[in-house]
Amino acid sequence: MTIFFFSDISWEGLHQRPQHLARRMAKDYRVIWIEPIVLSKKPSIKLQEVIPNLYTISLPAFPYNARQKWIKFLIYPISNLAFIRWLLLKIQLLVLRKVMSNLSISDNQYIFFYQNFHYINLEKHFSPKLIAFDYIDNAFGFVELPKHIVGDWKHTIEMSDFITITSPTLKKQVEEFRKENIFLVSNGVEYKLFSETKSALRPTDLPAGNPIVGYVGAVYQWFDFDLLDYLCHEMPDINFAIIGRDHPDIKEKTDKLKNHNNFLFLGFREYSTIPAYLAHFSAAIIPFQRNELTKSVNPVKLYEYCAAGVPTVTTNFSDDLNEFKELIFIADTKEKFKSSIESSLQKANDELFRQKLKEFAKLNDWDKKYESISKLIR
């Protein structure tokens, strides 16, 4: 059996839920990872085996989430033209049919596993054994999408044999259009990688001395930059370290934060190196604004922080956070966030609390998450 894994991101992108699930699928199935073409990377128009039994190929799609404003400015009116959408579909069909022909894949011998629902119209031209939709973020929380995309999203919900969602808020959103075969499979962590860090050497770009309070993940418009500015000013004896890619739209805001001597923007770091950074964090933060996107987010970083035994402070960006209230500090105001960091630094020396965090993370290992989805597929 072959799984066509329709992804929102490239295989080499920020290592997160898509790659974790696909790697595990490749142990049971042949996996074709289908990623959208982006300007920053040369497209792979031929299958490339990146790990045993997992192949990548690029498939054109409208880049609604492009980093460049001029692309988004052009793509919206262009994608509203029915002829252009028809032409794009024909190109997608040509590529996918060639893949199936080269691999001698026949009807009912493959599965369509969607995370990127923008490819959903392909299903009308094929006969997959199963259609699954792994709905991991609010589709309409990132950018404003053309009206026809809403129809594609609803079609994905209607056509899927089962839907997995990452948060209770997303479940409520999907249940407006269907009630059956919706399953909560939250995010997870590679527990062994993130928990066994006692002997990890301090990364050379992390200063010694003052406690380090850190964040790992994407830095985008949903980040609360005013809160970080406040914390850096009010807590000069703490170094605030941010690890992740920043978006061009927010460069001015990150540049402003760099005026603080205790603010460190380290940029992107390879996934395999992140545990070493967490091993030297005294506390971790998730400083998100509350909006349509974040209120349904189930942060992977929360599980990774816990696996490393690092106390976490978050803003109150989602009602779903109440599930973790015994494990994390949730702050409604800047002042409460500051005091919560002070409390978390005390908890950093509480071995029983650190062990409690690790036990929670162990129950949410990616192997367990994949097993839940694997049972649904079987």
What would a concise description of this structure say?
With 378 residues, the chain is of the alpha/beta class.
Question: Secondary-structure map with pairings?
Answer:
Elements: E1 2-6, H1 17-25, E2 30-36, E3 48-51, E4 54-59, H2 69-79, H3 82-102, E5 110-114, E6 130-135, H4 147-159, E7 162-165, H5 168-174, E8 182-184, H6 191-195, E9 212-216, H7 225-234, E10 239-243, H8 251-257, E11 263-267, H9 274-278, E12 283-286, H10 300-307, E13 312-315, E14 329-331, H11 334-347, H12 351-362, H13 366-377
Parallel strand pairs: 1-2, 1-5, 2-4, 5-6, 6-7, 7-8, 9-10, 9-12, 10-11, 12-13, 13-14
Antiparallel strand pairs: 3-4
Helix pairs in contact: 1-13, 7-8, 10-12
Walkthrough of the structure:
35% of the residues lie in helices and 17% in strands. With 378 residues, it is α/β, with parallel strands linked by helices. The strands form 2 sheets. The chain has an 8-stranded mixed beta sheet, with helices on both faces. It has a 6-stranded parallel beta sheet with strand order 11-10-9-12-13-14, sandwiched between helices. Helix 7 runs parallel beside helix 8 (251-257) and helix 10 packs across helix 12. The longest helix has 21 residues, at 82-102. The model has no long low-confidence stretch (mean pLDDT 92).
Key traits:
8-stranded mixed β-sheet; 378 residues; alpha/beta; single chain; 6-stranded parallel β-sheet; 13 helices
Helix count?
A: 13
Q: What is the N-to-C succession of helices and strands?
A: EHEEEHHEEHEHEHEHEHEHEHEEHHH
**Estimated share of beta-strand residues:** 15-25%
What are the segments in which pLDDT stays under 50 over at least 5 consecutive residues?
none
Q: What best-fitting shape do the alpha-carbon axes yield?
A: globular
Distance between the termini: 11 Å
Helix content: 25-40%
Radius of gyration: 21 Å
Number of DSSP strand runs? 14
- Largest sheet geometry: 8 strands, mixed
Strand order of the largest sheet: 3-4-2-1-5-6-7-8
Structural class: alpha/beta
Average predicted local confidence, pLDDT: 92
